[in-house]
Amino acid sequence: MEQRPLGTTGLKVSALGLGTSTWGATTDRDDAAEQLRAFVEVGGTLVDTADVYGGGSAEEIVGQLLGKVVPRDNIVLATKAVAVLDDPDRRQNASREHLLSTLDKSLTKLRTDYIDLWQLHAWDHAVPLEETLAATDTAVRAGKVRHVGVCNYTGWQTAKAATWKQLNGVAPLASCQLEYSLLERGIEREVVPAALDAGMAVLPWAPLGRGVLTGKYRGGVPADRENSRFFKWYVAPRIDDRSARIVEALAAAADELAVPLVAVALAWVRDRPGVAAPLVGARTVEQLRESLSPATLALELPAEIRRDLDAASAPNIGYPESGI
């Protein structure tokens, strides 16, 4: 698998990252081990987790597997802090106290002395940004963190954080992680330009449109999925007339290239400006292997097909980003 620079840092990551949001929830330890093996066998290095994934157990599973499935130093380990699970009145906490205590807990669960990429999972309006970013510098100076990134920040938030780090921080922000796919291109309005200007890499999550871009819903939604709470909350918002048109354009491209829809969808987002590594996650290793197949990893979209997909999925940019 191709290795790419993470923004302007000296760190390199595989062109696809392994997401672990299902680990400890719908993916148990044995299945997670199979996923990690399949990932590293094709040259994958970037493993992305979070302190809240799997109710807190995803980091524990990752820690149990590092050193057994793959040497720790062969992995670019990314995790996150800020999100809160146990406080109904506060979903984010980016205070210095919370961040540094959470980091120590993450290091213990992950069974490692350092995090390659520590990410702020969300913006916290209740805490001054200066306090939050100064806390990340403390972690870097202590040798517990090598690089810092942000997740789910808006354009102005990304620009503000990047500017503070450039002027006051130990090192610039390395990356921003956001939802990005043929179905969700909203970050192209302001976040991607801000990231490119600051030299930050983009790490797309849900690059397969929350599963919609696999084509599994072309024939309708199965009754057992339609009534599930997870489907209603996570997938259903991505199923509409627009997404149906995009999936059909994707299917036409896949037919022309004789590859799966997954390969085309991942190749499209993987090679967008600023993108370092889309994060692919799956409930089972069989699902993951489709994203890691030789056809997917080697695919480079012809310019004409890319233009067709761009047109089919074009977001409404509007003023002022589009100009006068």
* Total domain modules: 1
Q: What's the CATH superfamily, by name?
A: NADP-dependent oxidoreductase domain
Count up the helices. 13
> What's the count of strands?
10
SSE order = EEEHEHEHEHEHEHEHHHHEHHH
Portion of residues in helices?
40-55%
Termini separation (Å)? 42 Å
The third-level CATH topology is TIM Barrel
CA-based gyration radius: 19 Å
The percent range for strand residues is 5-15%
- Mean of residue pLDDT? 95
Q: What is the structural class?
A: alpha/beta
Biggest sheet, strands in spatial order?
9-8-7-6-5-4-3-10
CATH class: Alpha Beta
Overall, the morphology is: globular
Which stretches of 5+ consecutive residues score pLDDT under 50? Answer: none
Q: Major beta sheet, specifics? A: 8 strands, parallel
**Architecture in CATH?**
Alpha-Beta Barrel
